[in-house]
Each structure stands twice: as structure tokens, then as C-alpha cells.
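Collaborator request, handled under Task 6.
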Amino acid sequence: MSLKLSLYNKYFMDNIKMVDLKSQYNKIKSEIDIAISNVIDDTSFIKGEKVKIFESELANYLGAKHIITCGNGTDALQIALMVLGLKPGDEVITADFTFIATAEVIALMGLIPVLVDVNPDTFLITPEAIEKAITPHTKAIVPVHLFGQCADMESIMQIAKKHELFVVEDVAQANGCNYKFKDGKIKKAGTIGDIGCTSFFPSKNLGCFGDGGALITNNDELAKNIRSIANHGMTVRYYHDQIGINSRLDTIQAAILSVKLKYLDEYNKLRNNAAKFYDKQLSNISFLKTPVRVSWSAHIFHQYTLIVEENKRDLLQKHLANKNIPSMIYYPVPIHRQKAYSKYNFKDENYPVTEMLSCKVLSLPMHTELSEEQLSFITNTINDFFINF
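C-alpha cells returned to the collaborator:
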């Protein structure tokens, strides 16, 4: 190997990223730049025509009746709880093992977050845990489609119907994921519950170049009220029929998302290809558990998350870092142990799975631009670490 090629390979391997947004952008640069330029030329930066166009395109892609864009995924969750008319003291069930935003908006609204443990193999909220947590004060369920695959929505919807509860899907990590019902019918994540909430944070499978979010619903009345709440409670300009907030997707972000939506299925396929490579190269390591796929959902691998046994997670992460390979722990501190939520008196013993996962999970680089050479370098580095045990 020539010195020049050797240096090139070293640079290439030393620049592995958790998410490579720059390389992804470079592949569609001309389309993105034109889309941005057109918005600037038009100067309709807020509520421009491109916002309506993107909402329509996303609705068509998802097979949903209504898409209402907003400022970010957290806003989407808050607006969803606002539109359902929940009152302070009402209980909302969600997963303990997830990003804080899901519980955050519940608490922010004066509602009571009821956290439940998750499945140790899939990391997903379970119907059994939900049913056990229901009380006369329960009003809604917020299942989280974590790391790229759906919770068991068919069972969750049956529970919701039985107990007359609302269902708000947190789809932030599962944009474009297919859910398969027992009768063979397929729906996109976010279109099954009363409302779906998603994020377009840049690192998401469908991400913009800033903050962005959206709500998904097939209910005409909910859609009308969601759109009003997101716009200061207005339906007619300067007439405020309800308490609202100011949460908008700006036109430049909508234009970017219109371009990237065309590639979403391809992006999700590339992530799956990377996941299959990881699976093949890592499945024989006794200290590792590779991601489990559920039967009812596709997996679009927003994250590729390992369970590392025998207290070797932190050592493995350090070993990877020494080789300039990034990795992340999602999530190192469970919600039930966060200082901000101490007033709810959550008990560690009620969340053994989440406690275990917080000590053992490790997410590897996962994005659309991973090359086979990079994947080989990552997996060889992991295998080299475990060969000594």
C-alpha cells in the first residue's frame, strides 16, 4: 500500500462519526441549495407555501389525513396533550427508558407522568406494563417507538379502547417505519393512535437543518384544534379562541424536508444494511446482545444499540474512543432517577429493566454514509477488544 493511500485510509477511519450529516448533504447539495435559495428569493420565511407543500407530501407518504408542522418534537408532544383537553392531575402512561422530552411535557402540563418499565430485549414499552399501570385517573398513553421500531400498537390500541384512553405516539425515532397488524394490514408509525408526534431534529432519519416537528392525525376536529393551538390559539387572525403557543416550522426547513423526504426510504434501507453488517460481525461475541427485531414492526435503526454484559460497557466505549470511533449511551440516567422528577417518588425497584439497560447499552455509529470499510474497522475493533476475554 502506498503512503498516500495509507494516509487516506487513516484519515477516513479517523473521521467516523455517529451521524455524518455533511456527507449526506453533499450528495444532495444541489437540490438542497436550490430549495433554500428559492425560499430566500421568495422571502416567505414563516408559513410560506413550502410548508403547506411539505405537509401535503408527508401526509401522502404516511397515508395520513392531516399533518400539522410545528417548531420541534417536544412542542408536538405538548400540543398533543393540550388538544386532548387533559387536566392537571390526570395521569399519562409512558416509558421510563426514553429521552426526557416525553415525560417532560407531561410534567410541564401539570399532568402526572406514570413511568413503566420496558422489554429487556426490544427496549419498548409493553402492553402488559401499561395495563398494570392504569388507574381511574389515567387519561392517555404515550408509547415511544424507540431506536427505530414500533411498540406493539395493536395491543396498545385494544387496551386504550377498553379503558377509553387517548393514545399519542412518539414517533421521533421511527419516521417511515412500517407497522404490521395481525391481519396483514400495514400502517406507518404515527398514524395508528389518536395523534402521532415526530421530530425533524437534524440527526433523525428524516431531519432538517435546525429544529422542526409535526403532529399526525386522521381526526378532522383534532387537526383543526392542533393547527389553532400551534398558532397562538387562532383560527382567524387576531381572534384567539383558545390558549395556544407559538410553534411553527419555518419555510426553509420545510423546503429542506421536502427534498429529504424523497430519500427517506433509501436512507432507512442504508441504515438497515449497516445494521445487518453489524449483526453478522458481532453476533458471535458472547458478551454482546445485538438488537432484537419484533415481528410486528420494521426496524429503521435510528440507533444501533448493543447490550454489553459483564460490566464491560464502559471499557468497550473507552477502547473505541482510543481508536477514534464514537459511541453513545442512550440513556445513562433513567427518567425515574432524574433530579427534576424526584417529587413523583419513583422507586428504583419498579424499573429493574431500565436500571439494567442504563448500565449496559451502547449505541454504535449509525447513519446513511457508513462505508463497508468503516463498518469493518468498527466491528474489527470491537472483536479485538473481546478476544482477550
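The cover message to the collaborator said: "The first helix runs from residue 3 to 14. The longest strand covers residues 66-70. Please let us know whether this matches your experimental observations."
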